[in-house]
């Protein structure tokens, strides 16, 4: 019994690590896609140069003044929405426990 419980915890840990890693990779890919594609075509090299502040092309200006702030803002709003949902679930769970105690 003790060995099975330990194996279940270990497999759950690996699953959570895999899910976290996959989510992080998807987040990075999403950020890069948001910076790369838009109204003006931009190459991967120009994107890299703009993010490292090497060069003075017009495409670098597009990325640094338009796309990067938009992407960072979307990222921050996503984080805030996730935290709001988490807090709502926690409050709802606590209120459900409290109302169950009152009924009994």
Provide a descriptive summary of the structure in words:
86% of the residues lie in helices and 0% in strands. The chain is elongated and about 65 Å long. The two termini are 36 Å apart. The chain is an all-alpha fold and 104 residues long. α1 runs antiparallel to α3 and α2 (44-51) packs across α3 (58-103).
- Provide a count of the helices: 3
- Output the radius of gyration: 22 Å
Average predicted local confidence, pLDDT: 87
Q: Could you give a short account of the major beta sheet?
A: none
- Which structural class fits the helix and strand makeup? mainly alpha
- Strand proportion: under 5%
Q: Helix coverage percent of residues? A: over 70%
Topology as a string of helices (H) and strands (E): HHH
Q: Characterize the overall form.
A: elongated
Q: How many angstroms does the end-to-end distance come to?
A: 36 Å
Total number of strands: 0
Low-confidence segments, given as residue ranges, are: none
Write the layout of secondary structure elements.
Elements: H1 2-36, H2 44-51, H3 58-103
